[in-house]
Amino acid sequence: MRGALPQTTLEDKHLFELLRRAYIDARYDKSYRVTVEELAALGERVRALAAVVERGCQEKVAGLRASAGWRTANRMRW
User: Fold this and answer.
1) Mean pLDDT score of the chain
2) What is the pLDDT of residues 8-24, one digit of tens each?
3) Which residues contact 24 (CB under 8 A, 6 or more apart)?
4) Which end of the chain is more exposed for a tag (fewer CB within 10 A), N or C?
């Protein structure tokens, strides 16, 4: 997941900090601002992160289902 929100360049770090601050500042600090360009860049990164998380969750659920199916099948034999 680290690759979805990289912090290697100054722009990466700036965008990550905007996203981090948005959690509180966007609600309570009237001076909090994000440009259209920053918002677009953050949107791309957040969508990439969501895709990574979705894939990871699907893999985990598939593994749990496979494990549950194996245990259920083995229990029935006893």
Assistant:
1) 86
2) 999 999 999 999 998 88
3) none
4) C
